[in-house]
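U., I forgot to send this yesterday:
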Amino acid sequence: MSKESHQRAAEFHDLAAHSHRVAAAHHDKGDHQTGHEHSKQAMEHSAKAHQASQEAVQKSAMAAQGKEKEK
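Result:
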């Protein structure tokens, strides 16, 4: 389960990075409206990535605690 949580967080990080690159390309071309929309989308993906990362860390910590108790 923990691996899936980390994978989900990584996917959101990748989406955010892609949106940032697309936004920068549009800004470079002078298309500031489209660049702004992609920047906004990047921020949303970044927020989801952060939340998913926190959840993955919590699940990993809980799994580690469970393994400690088994010993």
